[in-house]
Every structure is written in structure tokens, then in C-alpha cells.
Give the backbone structure.
Amino acid sequence: MKTNKPMLIAFIFLATLCAVPLCEAAQGEYIIGEGDLLKITVYDNADLATEARVSGDGKITFPLIGEVAVSDMTAAEVEKKIAKLLSQGYLKKPEVSVFISEYKSRKVTILGEIARPGRVVLRGAYSLMEVISDAGGITQNAGETLYIQRKSLKPGDKKESEDVTLNIDLKKLFEAGDESANVPVLDGDSIYVPKAAFVYVNGEVRSPGAYKITKGLTVLKAITIAGGLTPIAGGSRTKIIRKTEKGETRIKAKMDDLVQPDDIILVPESLF
């Protein structure tokens, strides 16, 4: 099976990317939710060091002050909130640090032609490229378009949502470096990378095999990708073997005909 070299380079690049670092900026942007594990320390008060998991109702329990609602807050906001509560009769000017040691509440699902399909935890603000990297990169059989499905509030309605699908051109994302294709990914997004369609070029061509169908792929382009005709090829007698509802059919091919998924382009030997 042949591969597109620029796309293959993109696959290798993604495969070598490490996970996004847990930097302070990422933590500052992350919105805390149910299941997250927080490590909380208070400067010069080691006895107050606490690890607390956010409960289903969005709360943690902290020494001296009891339950604290932390859901939908950033780590920095939780630091300020706990410091304020501790300063109300417990400590003078407490310095609180909150570190998110386990991210559980914000996730996306990525399926299809991906190295490690499943759920990816969002450790802060993530782009599409970062999610693909965390999932191990896309496979060589991936198509040209990726789909992101997400819930979006209906215009003028703050409660009812509707499904919205974003279509992302993978060539723009990987080969052209188009930043507009590297969209932000949101909690709850479902990402799908479909398998590419293939055309099969057989007979008197230099490199018979299966090739990805790209937009606007003609019989001539497919033969060219397959290395071109051999010296004994009867190019004018090229046929397309195509599956239809009525079964398999053979079509006399014109070089500017567009190929369809699972077409077999058969180039016979010349009669002379």
C-alpha cells in the first residue's frame, strides 16, 4: 500500500510528540470538576497538606474549614477561596497552593483511524493537534476529513442544545500548517477519523497496488501514482471494474474519469 510522503512525515511528527506538559498555564486554564484530585498545601503549615478528590456535588473537604465548593473553578481561584476561608479566624495571610494531580472531569472521545482510540483527558486548554498527539496520531489509512461533533446551545436558548459537526481538512492541519484547522477542543467533544477510500490499480503499471482516493482523483492520476504504464501496456484498453447494486460491472475507462471507492483500474497488455 502506498502512502503520501508529506502525510507520513506528519504521522511521524505526531508520534514523537510527548504528552502536553503540566505547566502552570495549563492548570490555570483548566476548569475543575467531579473526579479531579487536588493536592493542596499551605506554606509553613505542613499539617494542612491535603489530597482531596472532587465529589459528585463539586466539593472537597479541607481541614479547619470543612466542605468547600470547587467545581467550575480554576486552580488559582480555589487557592484564593481557601486562603480567604482560612484567614477568617484560622491563619494570618495564608499562602495556599493547589495542584491538580489527577485530571478526570474533562474528556473527549476520539475514534476511527487513530493509534489509540478512546478517551483523552483534557489537561487544560487543548487544541485538536494536541488531542491527536495524546491518542498516538492518526493511522496511514485515515481519510482526508476529520469530524468533531459537539453540543452547542441553540441561538437564543440558554438551556437547550443541538449537535454541531465541524469538518476538518487533515491536509490543511498536517501538511499546510493551517492554524485555522487546529481548532480548540472542548469537554464532551466526539472526534471521528474515518478510513480512507481506496482505488486498486492493477495490470501493466510499474507499481500495482492500493492507493488512497483524494479529491479529484482521475484514472490518469491514479495510473501516474502507480508509477505509470509499462512499455507493453495497452493504455487505450484500460477498464474500470466497479461494484454496483446489480453486481460487478466493467467500464471502458477514459483518462479523465473520476475514480470511485473500491474501483479496480485494470491496464491490459497491448495487443501489438
